[in-house]
Specification:
This protein has one domain. It contains four helices and no strands. Helix 2 packs antiparallel against helix 3.
């Protein structure tokens, strides 16, 4: 049986190809619907083409959500459980 030559790969086509599991138009529309597209102007672009290498923009705020109400049902029990573990 004759061996067939392997298919050639154009490395330029592979080097910068970004494969993403995201539906980019859905991300853009979700950000637009939520009214926060202006807060994340580069997100859809970065998902499609990859994030730029370098210093990311500074983080100017953080958000820590409150505990769920169920966490306050029996705080003494939870405290004792943690103390037993420690």
């Amino acid at each position: 049986m004759e061996r067939l030559p392997a298919l050639e790969i154009d490395i330029c086509q592979l080097l910068y190809k970004v494969v993403t599991p995201y539906v980019l138009e859905a991300w853009r529309q979700a950000l637009l619907d939520a009214g926060i597209l202006r807060n994340y102007p580069n997100l859809v672009h970065d998902l499609e083409f990859g994030s730029p290498i370098g210093n990311p923009p500074p983080i100017d705020f953080t958000f820590i959500p409150k505990n769920l109400p169920s966490a306050e049902i029996n705080p003494e029990y939870i405290t004792n459980l943690i103390l037993e573990e420690v």
